[in-house]
Amino acid sequence: MDLSPATAGAYGGKAADAYRKALSSAASAAAYAVLARSMARALLPDELRAAVRWAASVLRARLGWGAKERRTLVIRSHTGGGGREENLLFDAARTYLSSRLDPRAMRRLGLRLCATRDDGGLRSWTKRLFIEPGDSTVDVFDGVEFMWSSVQKTNGGGGGNKKSKNGESGTAEFLLKLSFDAKHTDMAMERYVPFVMGAAEETRLRERSLMICMNEGRTWFRLHHHHPATFDTLAMDPVLKQSIVADLDLFANRRDHYRRIGKAWKRGYLLYGPPGTGKSSLVAAMANHLRYNIYDLDLSHVQNTTLQWLLLTMSDKSILVIEDIDCCCDAMLREVDSKTPARTCKEDGGGSSETSDGTPSPKRKSEVITDVLFPCIAV
């Protein structure tokens, strides 16, 4: 191979000529593109150019070119006039995220102590994690990634803004941003957001302080319920225990089914046996498993009108326990035999079943869950 200086110079000249030709061609193409763009702006109407851009974006999306289009939902902590109304979706999202955050995977995490009040006004405390402003986390739902970001926005300027404690003008507003691919917009609005709200409600039920309520006249008296019984600690046949747990879970997850068929959402269990056989422990285990409050109804001094009022004032998702119902039945039978007006039990036996079916009043909440337990012998 000839590597003389003359040959090397010839090769270098050819490369330089090829480079100059390529550069000239690129410059000409760029000039034609600029000219064509200018002519399109001058001659084509805005509607046609918008249609061309839309067609190009659809083509890029179909072929997978370029970045995917994103959608962002902004969830503010307060809404309404003046931003004074609390946004329940914001609280639900923070409650949901507190159960999904992994402290080992986050760079920064906030920790707060929250006070929750149950239906009777009793307060309990729980620790919750939350995303610090400026950080984000990814949640996966049905194989789709949803990104949550926390933002703190300061609304400054204007004479009407309040001053903060450090003397600076403006008010701080906290936001949560939910980002996802545009093609998953329907899933986000119709499935993911309702799922977040439902999961937050389940978390609230798990964290609330359970109560046991006892009736006196037309009033329920509430006390904290701290019974330690669970299905893990119950001395029961394993197969029977598993069937009860499965039945409870099936009932708790079928509210929509009961609503579709037009029936009250309730479930009845009949517990019987001598004292000390674990009927009260089973009721407590059910309450701890479902996180439902217990209403202990004494029928010895209850009339039909009072019974209806007591059942209507029960909280959602609760267990109604009616003890010694056989004693009331015996009292009614003795009254019929003796034909005397004296009554030991002032409940006629029909009011309980009718009221628990949700039939006496349209004001009764159809979503109230009443697990009615009828021990035939004293618990």
Automatic annotation (TrEMBL):
<dbReference type="InterPro" id="IPR050747">
    <property type="entry name" value="Mitochondrial_chaperone_BCS1"/>
</dbReference>
<feature type="domain" description="ATPase AAA-type core">
    <location>
        <begin position="269"/>
        <end position="332"/>
    </location>
</feature>
<feature type="region of interest" description="Disordered">
    <location>
        <begin position="341"/>
        <end position="367"/>
    </location>
</feature>
<dbReference type="Pfam" id="PF00004">
    <property type="entry name" value="AAA"/>
</dbReference>
<keyword id="KW-0460">Magnesium</keyword>
<dbReference type="GO" id="GO:0005524">
    <property type="term" value="F:ATP binding"/>
</dbReference>
<dbReference type="InterPro" id="IPR027417">
    <property type="entry name" value="P-loop_NTPase"/>
</dbReference>
<dbReference type="Pfam" id="PF14363">
    <property type="entry name" value="AAA_assoc"/>
</dbReference>
<dbReference type="InterPro" id="IPR003959">
    <property type="entry name" value="ATPase_AAA_core"/>
</dbReference>
<feature type="domain" description="AAA-type ATPase N-terminal">
    <location>
        <begin position="44"/>
        <end position="151"/>
    </location>
</feature>
<protein>
    <recommendedName>
        <fullName>AAA+ ATPase domain-containing protein</fullName>
    </recommendedName>
</protein>
<dbReference type="InterPro" id="IPR025753">
    <property type="entry name" value="AAA_N_dom"/>
</dbReference>
<dbReference type="GO" id="GO:0016887">
    <property type="term" value="F:ATP hydrolysis activity"/>
</dbReference>
